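For this section, I looked closely at the sequence of one protein beside the tokens encoding its backbone, which the following lines show:
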Amino acid sequence: MQDFTLTIYRKLLQELLTNGYSFQTLLDFIQRPEDKAVVLRHDVDRKSENALVIATIEKNADIRASYYFRIVKESYDEDIIRQIAKMGHEIGYHYENLSAVNSRKDFREVKGAMSKEKLFELAIEDFERNLEKFRKIYPVKTICMHGSPLSKWDNRDLWKRYNYKDYGIIAEPYFDLDFDKVFYLTDTGRRWDGDSVSVRDKVKNTGDRGQGAGVRNLRLRKTWDIIEAVEKGLLPDKIMLNTHPQRWTDNPIEWTKELVWQNIKNVVKRVIVRRGKLVKM
């Protein structure tokens, strides 16, 4: 069976439901966590129309999820965002302000010692402006960073100087979830064990504290591996499951395009990860 199709996504959701998991948005989980829950998160990097299809599948299964949209045209579509919100899903801001401002021409012309100060100043202004734009559509209460793997800037560094809670934001998953207690699964790299090709979308799942026996040693590369692990009761009671909707489709042409494109990206990202490790050494 081909992976990353809507068919297998439906099977994954159904297996989780059958085995007693409830689905929660990030906001609901932060405020009222269920005992056995999947925090269902979608990073809409591009192809927002795919997100609408997935949102409809979830609505038909009485499942609610959190959808994080970028502000760029490849992701931000007000009509689609409204439709997804109307289905009962949570909408959040997939922020990338440091990397976005750093690539702007008006910032590249800033020279000297003040350039870093100016970057953070422009980035928080960009965050405020974009958050307000989202809030004209939906009362955004949670945010999530976009990895921006080609940028030297980690967008989470914005919060070393500012506090997102000053803007009425309740949670950012990389800061507000304890990943020793919440098992993190992400399809970054078009695989579920993509640490070697993930620059920033990763956490330390130790498998020792609150994760459930044997989780650390599970090999979960394909979606079918997750389905089998759920069926055998091998996964812990609290999970964050993150997908990128652009890679999930039953259309064979689009599926192949995404496969080829992701393989190319993985080569580049693997080099970035290795260089980063060498720099730290």
